[in-house]
Design a protein that fits this description.
By secondary structure, the protein is an all-alpha fold. The protein has a domain of about 140 residues: Vacuolar protein sorting-associated protein Ist1 (Ferritin, Up-down Bundle). The chain is built from 13 helices and no strands. Helix 2 packs antiparallel against helix 6, helix 2 packs across helix 9 and helix 3 packs across helix 9. The longest helix is centred in the first third of the chain and has 39 residues. The protein is elongated, with a radius of gyration of 58 Å.
Length: about 325
């Protein structure tokens, strides 16, 4: 009969600012009490963890540290919720006068509705009921599911049940050991061991050079701040360092010199008796029995005897060398 009475009375319920204000005040005080209980439990848990570390029971200390981390998150959630209740308590008149939910109060109200079904705060259920009468059941259901993403992201993260990482657990144990003066060496995690191994392998594979660069290398190596400028290629041909200057009329000069040499030799050396023409061949052997040297100049035959005004072998060789030089030019 009592349940039927409650259901009938629920049909005729209406939004009341006074009821919501009283419920917000009670919910804020309840959050304060719950937060103090959590803090008290944390102090007891820290002493237990320190005693476990002192006795060498590290595995049990790890499990207790996980519970401690979860309660630390719950303490922060109660702190945020207490602040939101105080804010809505002071703005209740503004909420009562507006038909729609004010834009600057959507996040606090959505956070309270989200926490009403997840935390054990009886007074919070009355607040959620009043906001449901004010803005409708569908609007409240969206914030219960957080489909509109209007709930404070940090509050959602605090109430999300996740397993803490190994590094977070070890950091908590290390802080408790330092706080209570327990000698405990923090072991390295798998990530830290891998990072150390990679650092050692990298440093061993690429040894750092300790010898400074020589003066020659410093002069030759270009500066990192100044760009290397290559010499411009000259369009003019390179100069010849041998001293030779090409002459475009070299062929004419060669033939003129040969003509002059031949004329001077022919004037200074008469042909021997019996030779009417230089084109006639001479005997191949000298009277002394030595072979004659054939003449390479045009108009000269072989020489029988070197007399006054005649050319000897040395002069002939010199003339032949000069001729070859002029010919190579």
């Amino acid at each position: 009969m009592s349940s039927f009475k409650k259901s009938v009375m629920g049909i005729f319920d209406r939004w009341k600012a006074s009821t919501c204000k009283a419920s917000l005040q009670l919910a804020g005080k309840r959050c304060t009490l719950q937060r103090n209980k959590v803090i008290k439990w944390q102090r007891i848990a820290e002493r237990e963890i320190a005693e476990m570390l002192r006795q060498g029971r590290e595995e049990k200390a790890r499990i207790k540290a996980e519970q401690l981390i979860a309660n630390q998150k719950l303490e922060s959630a109660y702190d945020i919720l207490e602040t939101q209740c105080e804010l809505l308590y002071t703005r209740i008149q503004y909420i009562d006068q507006s038909k729609e939910c004010p834009a600057d109060l959507i996040c606090p109200i959505a956070t309270m509705i989200y926490a009403g079904v997840r935390l054990t705060v009886p007074e919070m259920a009355n607040c959620v009921r009043q906001f449901e009468l004010k803005y409708g059941r569908i609007w409240c259901q969206q914030h219960i599911d957080n489909s509109t993403q209007d709930v404070a992201p940090r509050f959602v993260g605090l109430l999300t049940i996740t397993s803490p990482s190994e590094s977070m657990i070890l950091d908590t144990l290390d802080e408790i050991a330092d706080k209570f003066g327990v000698e405990w060496k923090r072991p390295s995690t798998i990530e830290e061991k891998l990072a150390d191994a990679l650092t050692i392998s990298h440093s061993s594979s690429i040894p750092a050079s300790t010898t400074p660069p020589s003066v020659t290398q410093q002069q030759i190596s270009p500066s990192s701040s100044e760009p290397t400028v290559l010499p411009e290629s000259s369009s003019t041909p390179d100069k010849d360092t041998t001293g030779f200057v090409p002459n475009p009329k070299a062929d004419e000069l060669v033939f003129e010199d040969l003509d002059k040499e031949e004329q001077s030799i022919s004037n200074s050396r008469p042909f021997p008796a019996g030779h009417t023409s230089a084109s006639k061949a001479l005997p191949a052997i000298n009277p002394q029995g030595t072979p004659r040297r054939p003449s390479t100049l045009v108009g000269f035959g072989c020489r029988d005897k070197v007399g006054e005004g005649e050319i000897g072998d040395a002069e002939f060789d010199e003339l032949l060398q000069r001729f070859n030089k002029l010919k190579d030019i």
